[in-house]
Amino acid sequence: MEETKVYTVSIYTENNIGLLNRLSAIFQRRHINIESINSSVSEIPDVSRFTIVVEMTETQINKIIGQIAKQVEVIKAYYHTDDEIIYQESCLFKIKSDLLFEDRQIQNIVKDSNSRIVTVNREYFVVEKSGRKEEIDQLFEDFSTFGIMQFIRSGRIAVTKEKLEVSHILNAFNH
Amino acid sequence: MGIEEVTLSENNRKPKATVRISGSEAIVRCLIEEGVDILYGYPGGAIMPVYDELYKYQGKIHHVMTRHEQGATHAAQGYARISGKVGVAIATSGPGATNLVTGIADAQIDSTAMVCITGQVASHLLGSDAFQETDIVGISTPITKWNHQVTKAADIPKVLAKAFYIAKSGRPGPVLIDITKDAQFEEFDFSYEKCTGVRSYTANPKSDDRAIANAAELINGAKKPLIVWGQGVILSRAEEELKQVVEKAGIPAAWTILGASAIPTAHPLNVGMVGMHGNYGPNVLTNECDVLIAIGMRFDDRVTGNLSAYAKQAKIVHFEIDPSEIDKNVKTDVAVLGDAKECLSKLIPLLDKNQHEDWHQKFKDFYVLEYDKVIKGDLHPTKEGLTMGEVLKEINRCSNGNAAIVSDVGQHQMIACRYAEFTTTKSNITSGGLGTMGFALPAAIGAKMAAPDREVVAIIGDGGYQMTIQELGTIFQQKTAVKIVVLNNEFLGMVRQWQQLFFDKRYASTEMTNPDFVTIAKGYSIEAKRVVKREELKAAVAEMMASKEAYFLEVRVEKEGNVFPMIPTGASVSEMRLE
Q1: Which is catalytic among the residues B145, B162, B181, B224?
Q2: Superfamily (CATH H level) for B209-362
Q3: How far does A112 lie from chain B, in Å, by closest CA?
Q4: What are the start and end residues of each CATH 3.40.50.1220 domain in chain B?
Q5: Has B181 been annotated as catalytic?
Q6: Quick check: is B494 catalytic?
């Protein structure tokens, strides 16, 4: 059996309504769970970039990339393993304020984890942390003894170590 | 008619002449600009402005009202498959749009160029659960090559130009354009320019000379090469190139169901059909060849049987336009990406002239075996009860192999594909990938309209016929001279065959109590006859084929006939059963 790995899929697309549906349908149809998904503008004007994290075999991811790449409004699709990318996730914790003043340990956790207090008021304070999933998991564990009122983590965003020559494809079309 | 002409310049740099018209008129003008002469559809609230324009333009574009929107899509498919042009279907919002879904899915899996236009509620009503509102763009996303919703009239020309370009270029497929009613009413300055490219989409991958050279080397070195070609050959109009490859390198060549007719049935190197009910030789010898050359086919599971025992001994060369098909089901040794016509024409000069007589003889030997066990009984039965095969034999005799055969789905389809003799390409029109019962009758209408000079014979089972039987109304109204043959065994025959073989003859919901089909056809003023005895068959088929008008022929065939040979599901091509 071929081993499964975590793959980060980066997709450059036209910025069109319905494309998210079209991309997610490719995974849905094959009964594949998406670990995380992010969509934003890219470095190229009017071009969007999706970052999708999935766990599967390399044979599977190759086929999936083929299906994604053939969608008319997809300019280019790539997949990478964790060691081929620089990646981050971001998260927010909402915690009761009284704990912040009563228990110094919370402030130590914030300092040691390189997270940052975004806002404080009488009822609650909000901590933000960007990092890898494991770091955020650790922070969640550290805070959980104090009672987390709300927690949210973003999808992974990633840039690749290799050059992605998407602009070349677009320039080639224009000439 | 007093409709002002728009002059369209070929040169993109010249300023375009514009004319102020409504979105709905623009839709019709776009269709005319794309060379659409016939479209199929059904009117309704959200598409009425377009129908009003179709009324005004009826001298220039012919709208065929089918009796159900599904029929419109299949008619558009039949039109596209026989002509190589884009088929067009049009429907209203809501149920009109959802009734298109089966045909769209069929066109997607069988790579048929089709543009569907649906009306939609006015843009301010989107998402309000308005009357006949449905999210057809969402619904059709996974079954279209591309789809798009238009809410502004000014977007119509660009979007429709792109729709036609995408539908027909590269690996063809269906495109759906949903147009809100307010965009149909809105006026704007219209001009039209054909689409020549989309920056995020590569229609034809550039052919790679090195890959072609590698393919040639493998083929030249092969002792037992086998070609399996598919519809890609027909779609890229590469029939002549394929024939040259086959003849120069002396390679036995077999076809998938959608590839049928690209090379005439009688060609000496045409060794028949692959797949579940294909011919014995090409299936069994797939597991004996040393180089398997797949051209414009996608290794569908009905072709390969058990993948882990499919052509494992062979080197695989795959000529394919769609990169996502490479290694999808069968791992290739040499992948040649690109248009089949272009790649094969580059391959021909690199091939050594060759013959593989001993190898070719094996196919002939297997044919003799298959003839004795199966074909003889199908085509020249001696027992009581008409066979589907002998009906095909009579049709072949009357048409000299020049008819286009439009088949539905089931036993009769397999028999039609096995025994129809083809002399002309684009002559086998059937629902291959999706297996859509009800396909044939409306598809035959589209095929006959696109090729009025050709004989079009629909071969349908009694089950599938009743799924779209209402299209007899379309034939009646349009006076479409299709020949309709219903092979009636009063069963859903293929399902019954499986019940017999794999479910201990528990015939759950497969026996059919059928109406009087002849009376029904006559109700639509279609000449009709029923054959129940062998001695009536010859004359009845001849009369049907000689008719200049639509003709319905019901043939009562044996109730529990089976289609053989057969590769049971999950079995390997080597395990094909002859009985």
Answers
A1: B181
A2: TPP-binding domain (3.40.50.1220)
A3: 46
A4: 209-362
A5: yes
A6: yes
Q: Minimal Cα–Cα distance from B148 to chain A, Å? A: 8
Secondary structure of B127-190 in the HEC alphabet?
CCCCCCCCCHHHHHHHHCCEEEEECCHHHHHHHHHHHHHHHHCCCCCEEEEEEEHHHHHCEEEE
For the entire predicted model, the pTM comes to 0.95
User: What are A's interface residues with B at a Cβ cutoff of 8 A?
Assistant: 13-14, 16-18, 21-22, 25, 29, 62-63, 66-67, 69-70, 72-75, 169-170, 173-174
Alpha carbon distance B295, B310 (integer Å)? 17
From chain A, the residues in CB contact with B322 under 8 A are 70
Decide if A18 and B138 are in contact by the 8 Å CB cutoff: yes
What domains appear along chain A, each with residue ranges and CATH number?
5-80 (3.30.70.260), 88-153 (3.30.70.1150)
Q: What is the pLDDT along chain B (579 residues), one digit of tens a residue?
A: 334 444 444 445 555 689 999 999 999 999 999 999 999 999 999 999 999 999 999 999 999 999 999 999 999 999 999 999 999 999 999 999 999 999 999 999 999 999 999 999 999 999 999 999 999 999 999 999 999 999 999 999 999 999 999 999 999 999 999 999 999 999 999 999 999 999 999 999 999 999 999 999 999 999 999 999 999 999 999 999 999 999 999 999 999 999 999 999 999 999 999 999 999 999 999 999 999 999 999 999 999 999 999 999 999 999 999 999 999 999 999 999 999 999 999 999 999 999 999 999 999 999 999 999 999 999 999 999 999 999 999 999 999 999 999 999 999 999 999 999 999 999 999 999 999 999 999 999 999 999 999 999 999 999 999 999 999 999 999 999 999 999 999 999 999 999 999 999 999 999 999 999 999 999 999 999 999 999 999 999 999 999 999 999 999 999 999 999 999 999 999 999 999
| DSSP element (H, E) containing B430 | strand B428-430
- B19-190: CATH topology: Rossmann fold (3.40.50)
> Which of A18, A25, A62 has its CB closest to that of B137?
A18
ipTM of the complex: 0.93
Which of B324, B327, B332, B337 would you mutate first to test chain A, the one with the most A CBs within 10 A?
Answer: B324
Amino acid (1-letter code) at residue B333: D
User: What CATH class does B380-556 carry?
Assistant: alpha beta
Q: From chain A, pick out residues whose CB is under 8 angstroms from the CB of B147.
A: 18
Q: Say yes or no: B147 contacts chain A, CB-CB below 8 A.
A: yes
CATH 3.40.50.970 spans which residues of chain B? Answer: 19-190, 380-556
